[in-house]
Amino acid sequence: MHCAELGVKVANKELWSRKIFPRVAFEVNGVDPLGSYSLAISIVRVDNYKYKFEDGKWVVAGHVGLNEQKSAETRLVQHHDGFIRGSYLLKTPIYFDHLSLTNDRKYEAGAKIYLQTMCKYRPVLSVCRVDIGSVRTASSEDDKIIFSDEVMEFIAVTQYQNARIIQLKNQFNPYAKGQRYKRRIASTAPMKRESNASDESM
Asked: How far apart, in whole angstroms, are the C-alpha atoms of residue 105 and residue 195?
């Protein structure tokens, strides 16, 4: 099974351009039904800019400082189901519902990922065939694939900036607390400081 046959696409691509709280989901194809695969996700900063919401849109506000650039380490978070059989990947989208975000470095652990506020990010998926017998990942690049899609890019915030997002959040986010958002003006992928997953995490 070679990389040329293995493919990935965003499973809920239409939500990323319209809704504010899509689940991180992928559809994987071209895998060996009898093989086993390791899936891991990272949240990668797209550029070294900081953004602000101005006149109804996001604009560049300046550069990220050198110290902040150095602190932006990328972490890989393995899928919570561990190694996944190829036959299962071919049947259903794979969701990373266990992921949550924080803007406080001390809370970064497990499936909680640290992001810097007002910076732009994109989820990146790594798929690698594994040898269950030796519990090792494949050594050949033919059995690995890295996937990302710009449609999933978002700006991490702690307070909503776009009033229209309040309505979308309440409509599509199953964890949204309606009364809370009515008192706030909202944005794209907000974060929360607590260590538990929240209604404001991605």
From this structure: 11
Look at the alpha carbons of 176, 181, 187, 193 in this order and tell me if their dihedral is positive or negative. Answer: negative
Nearest Cα neighbor of 96 from 84, 108, 107 is: 84
- Containing H/E element for 63? strand 57-63
Which domains, from first to last, does the chain contain?
Answer: 7-155 (2.60.40.820)
- Backbone torsions φ then ψ of 13, nearest 5 degrees: -55, -35
10-residue stretch averages of pLDDT, the chain, 202 residues long: 71 53 86 95 93 92 78 81 96 90 82 89 94 56 82 85 68 57 45 39 38
DSSP character for 197?
-
Residues 178, 184, 187, 188, Cα dihedral to 10°: -30
Global pTM value: 0.70
